[in-house]
Amino acid sequence: MLLTRRDDARNMARFYALDLGPDLFGGTVLSRRWGRLGTQGREIREWFAQPAEAETARDLWLKRKLGRGYRTGD
Does domain 2-72 have CATH number 2.20.140.10? Predict the structure, then answer.
């Protein structure tokens, strides 16, 4: 899921990406990437034993970023 935030007055063009995927041991990985649009950005990964835990964490980050002005589908 890709979120973007743009504000020309502040010279701001950012992205935040949230992805869920399986790991090699049957768990689920939440990958979060962020940075300025047009760059590779930074990435952090969190491992969860249960898919439901990873989905809850993803939904929490999504809510936080939407509250800070990020939007989907730009």
Answer: yes
Identity of residue 16: Y
pLDDT, tens digit (0-9, with 9 covering 90-100), for 35-55: 999 999 999 999 999 999 999
**If residue 36 lies in a helix (H) or strand (E), which one and from where to where?**
strand 28-36
- Angle in degrees, CA 35, 65, 10, rounded to 5: 55
* Structural domain boundaries in the chain: 2-72
CB 68 within 8 A of CB 5: yes
The whole-number pLDDT of residue 73 equals 73
Place of tokens 């589908």: 73
Which residues pair with residue 32 across a beta bridge?
18, 44
Which residues, at least 6 apart from 67, have a Cβ–Cβ distance to it below 8 Å? Answer: none
- Mean pLDDT within 51-71: 96
